[in-house]
Amino acid sequence: MLIRHMLAISAQTYIATAIIIIIIIIIIIIFVTAVVAVPEADIDIGGPGRAGGLTNIQIDPAVKSLRRESITVT
Asked: What is the pLDDT of residues 46-55, one digit of tens each?
């Protein structure tokens, strides 16, 4: 019985450590993507970045009108 109890405890600790390692890996991935994305965003804050933002805003009403047309067709 004692050996089974110790095995159950070790299995729980393995599961807990695996979950902690997965969470740490996810946090590292988030930080790496943030570090990679922040310099690109800093570069885009200049003139071209703002123009890109405006063009993206102009595309959104067209997408909405296409959705409205598809709703009226159906």
From this structure: 455 444 444 4
> Nearest CA to 14 among 24, 6, 25, 3?
6
Report d(CA 22, CA 25) in Å as an integer: 5
Distances (CA, A) of 68 to 22, 55, 73: 43, 21, 9
- Residue 36 CA, distance from chain mean position: 13
- Whole-model pTM above 0.70? no
Cβ–Cβ < 8 Å for 14, 8: no
CA distance linking residue 63 with residue 56, whole number of Å: 11
